[in-house]
TrEMBL record:
GO molecular function, one term: monooxygenase activity
Protein name according to UniProt: Antibiotic biosynthesis monooxygenase
Record-annotated ABM domain positions: 20-85
Superkingdom to which the source organism belongs: Bacteria
InterPro entries: ABM_dom, Dimeric_a/b-barrel, Jasmonate_Hydroxylase-like
Gene3D superfamilies cross-referenced by the UniProt entry: 3.30.70.100
Upper taxonomic lineage: Bacteria, Bacillati, Actinomycetota, Actinomycetes, Kitasatosporales
Keywords, sorted A to Z: Monooxygenase, Oxidoreductase
Amino acid sequence: MTPKLVADIEPPYYTAVFTSVRTETPEGYAETGVRMREIVGGIPGFLGYESARTPGGIAISIAYFRDLESLDAWRLDSEHQAAKARGREHWYDSYSVHIGKVERSYSFERE
């Protein structure tokens, strides 16, 4: 089965690009990830997400939001803030966050 990409979103919209390198301490990481997907999925204006991990250990997650208000609702969510603090304490050696406004977008899918 081919993974499904987030596509066909009418611009403008916003992205939150999270790149990270994890530690060797995964306790609670997977469960927290499931919970974060539940929370962000309930935010009005959340459009979807994609993620990937390189063999070398760099992870990239991109979340798509209709507007800055919905992105801020995610950023300010108390459970998300607690997960970010736990990530800094236990799960990440480093990470970067990049916020962008998408003004043009297109996609291709083989039939």
